[in-house]
Amino acid sequence: MKLRVEHPEPEDAIKRRAVRPVIAYPNDQLPAYDASWYATARTGMVRTERITVPPRDAATFEVPAGHFFRIISTEGAQVGDLNIWHRGQLDEHFYSGKTRALHGTHLSTGDRLWSSFPYLRPMATITKDTLDWYGWDADGASVHDVIGTRCDPYTGVLLNNQHYHHCCHSNLTRALAEQENLTLPEAEKQVHDVLNVFMCTGFTRDTHQYFMKASPVRPGDYLEFFAEIDLLGALSACPGGDCSASHSSDTAACYPLTVEVYQPDAGAMKGWKPAVPNAYGGGHGL
Fold it and tell me: Where is average pLDDT lowest: 21-30, 95-104, 227-236?
């Protein structure tokens, strides 16, 4: 956190701090978000599946390429932790770090969820966000972050000597193990950093530590995605509920979440093709 200062400033410290920041990954060369195309594709879509994610637990779901899916708040303020994989190929999964580098710390309409190396392609595109009104608050917080990793039992033991089994990491592990007929150790290796759906987070201005606050989500709010490839998803209804106090708790008010999958009208999808893997040849200089 850089709270201890042990070395004196150089004479040109002010000049060094005043240098102009440079965006590390300018994203203006990414394919533009075509809002009108997605709106047309959404026209006439039909719901094909509805999955309920119980409180303090997780559930899996599948989304064919070219379909939409929504994560919906149904009963009360509830945060969800989302993992996605290429269906049938678990080594290609959501890469939260690269997504953060390309789009920023919090995602909304038009942002994409990118996959891990060596594929690095869009897995899903966010097409609707009923919390886009929230923006950034006075604390520097916003919703739908890709900075928090997921609550997990290992950090609980490290910080509090707490052995808690219904954190999002464990929930996702159990759900994936059941879905793919894996052992828990096998499934755990495939669970990865998440998109924190509906979670309201930021970094403190003094110590720059990750913080959370009560989610502004209301029953009926949803985050909608378009599947750019065949997807397997797993969603955990966080044991922290709205995460206003804790993210690993048996006392927080928790509610179910709903996942709905929609098939667009076939005519609207004419000519569309799934995203292709990254074109890098893989030589790595050898």
Answer: 21-30
What pLDDT, in 10s, does the model give residues 127-186?
A: 999 999 999 999 999 999 999 999 999 999 999 998 999 999 999 999 999 999 999 999
Residue 8: count other Cβ atoms within 10 Å of its Cβ.
7
In a domain, residue 125? The reply is yes
Q: How far apart are CA 136 and CA 51, in angstroms?
A: 31
Q: What is the DSSP string of 20-60?
A: PP--SS--TTSPPP-HHHHHHHHTT-EEEEEEEE-BT-EEE
Residue 194 lies in a domain: yes
Say if CB 215 and CB 198 are below 8 A apart.
Answer: yes
Give Cβ neighbours of residue 167 (< 8 Å, ≥ 6 apart). Answer: 150, 151, 152, 153, 156, 239, 247, 248
Cis? peptide before 118, omega within 30° of 0: yes
Does a structural domain hold residue 208?
yes
Q: Distance (Å, rounded) from C-alpha 79 to C-alpha 246?
A: 12
Find out whether 112 and 227 touch, Cβ atoms under 8 Å. no
Q: How confident is the model at residue 5 (pLDDT cuts 50, 70, 90)?
A: confident
Q: Give helix 168-180 / helix 153-160 axis angle, nearest 10°.
A: 150
Residue 154 lies in a domain: yes
Report CA dihedral (64, 226, 83, 75) to the nearest 10 degrees.
-110
Range of the domain at 110: 46-224+234-255
β-strand partners of 128 = 224
Domains in the chain, number? 1
